[in-house]
Amino acid sequence: MAKKVLNVEDDPDIRTFVTTVLEESGYIPIMAKDGEEGSRMVKEEKPDLIILDILMPRESGIKMYHELKRNPSLKDIPVVMLSAVSKRTFLRSQVALTEFGDETVPEPEAYLEKPVEAEDLAEIVKKILG
Amino acid sequence: MKITTMLFVSEFEELWFDALQSLMGLRKAGLNHVVFLHVIQREKVAMKRGAGFLKQEERKLREIADIRFIDWAETLFEEGMEVGAHIAIGNVVPKILSVAEIEKVDLIVTARTKRGKLEELFLGSESSDLLRRTVRPVLIYNYQSQSGKVGENPFERLLLALDWSVSSERLLEYTLALKGAVKRVEIMHVLSEKSIGKLSKMEAHKVERENKRRLDEVCDVFVKERFDARPHLYIGNTAEQIEKGASEHRATMIVLGTRGTSIWKEKWSGSVSHALAESSRLPVLVVPGEVK
After folding, report:
1. What is the 3-state secondary structure (H, E, C) of chain A?
2. What domain range is B261 assigned to?
């Protein structure tokens, strides 16, 4: 059975791009347009992989990632970050959240800075999901 | 009533990152989430004869806003803040109201914005329009001092103007929630020259004494909460005296309530909060007193 990939992204153009890449690679894409909707869909759909943007309305990818990795039932879902926010900022933000008393969380499986080529995205997803 | 989420509305011409940073003192009062909003004015991308909807222009403007917001967000994310962003096309005030509702913000920060002359005459400025229509506190942020320098902490010394109306209670509650970000509060009430002029000397003294007593009571509430607070009673034109008091006591921001008057009433009888929001040299924080 084809694996499910959740893409959390507020930009409709990028959502369309990711959907196309995932479908052409044989996966089932599921879409959420912000972190809040994304968090809900992770619990409902239990996807095999999450492709996560950072700067979005309602809830950022930074907060969503941090909560995901602290949730024992969801922390093993692999995450590919896909954002225009730099990896350095992402890692620093996770450290900053830890300073506020939160637990340390592991790094994501992959970090892609926008814009990304379709082949690169497809390759990363394939590498993680097989 | 904590301020945890702030909506920062920027057209990039008036409010820059230094303005946002100057508000970070609010973190001491519980701020942990900043939401950016940039509204692309409809007329900039609207249908043009022979050219249609300017899709390319819209894409360009969105891209510019996105790049700026990402740069700002990176700094805040690294400090452990939560950040969100909205880029929308349309009329500014309805978009602000809609995003403020979606994100459940505790404070809206916007620059003083002007409309065209004809629109101003009939509708007032966008700031006034926003103040009339929102139930949320609004900071009209005129963040540059007369010397052109950015005020480092606008919440440092507040001038709290009270009119003893129902809105004053919410105003007090909101100001007390700013504990941590505020160093000093100058609590002020302005007596109207007209009303005092009609009274006998004895009656005028009674009114003065009663207002001083009420100011002292409010002052005690703040002192109990470990604020440095001072009472001040002024007389004269309310807006002018508030501005004068702010200057005399070197306030960094004016804080006042609003009763929610209609556009016509406000146009002809005047609203102190709207007048100050329009013209004060200082940032003006307006806390609506009633649900609209």
Report:
1. CCCEEEEECCCHHHHHHHHHHHHHCCCEEEEECCHHHHHHHHHHHCCCEEEECCCCCCCCHHHHHHHHHCCCCCCCCCEEEEECCCHHHHHHHHHHHHHCCCCCCCCCCEEEECCCCHHHHHHHHHHHHC
2. 151-292
Size of the A and B interface in Cβ pairs below 8 Å:
54
Residue B111, phi then psi, degrees to nearest 5: -85, 165
Does residue B147 carry a pLDDT above 80?
no
- What CATH topology corresponds to A4-129? Rossmann fold (3.40.50)
Q: Taking CB atoms and an 8 Å limit, are A85 and B66 in contact across chains?
A: no
Any B CB within 8 A of A54 CB: yes
- Report the residue from B70, B77, B85 with minimal CB separation from A93: B77
Determine the pLDDT at residue B220: 96
Q: Number of folded domains in chain B? A: 2
B203 in a domain, yes or no?
yes
Do B167 and B283 have their domain in common? Answer: yes
Same domain (yes/no): B74, B162? no
Residue A60 touches partner B, C-beta closer than 8 Å? yes
In CATH, what number is assigned to the domain containing residue B221?
3.40.50.620
Please tell me if residue A25 touches chain B, with a CB cutoff of 8 Å. no
Same domain, B160 and B99: no
pLDDT at B269: 45
- In the structure, what pLDDT confidence band is assigned to residue B26 with cuts at 50, 70 and 90? very high
**Domain shared by B292 and B155, yes or no:** yes
Q: Compute the nearest-CA separation of A3 from chain B (Å).
A: 30
Whether A63 has its CB under 8 Å from any CB of chain B: the answer is: yes
Instruction: Give the pLDDT confidence of A32-84 residue by residue, as tens digits.
Output: 999 999 999 999 999 999 999 999 999 999 999 999 999 999 999 999 999 99
* ipTM value for the complex: 0.93
Distance of residue A47 Cα from the nearest chain B Cα, in angstroms:
24
Residues in chain A: 130
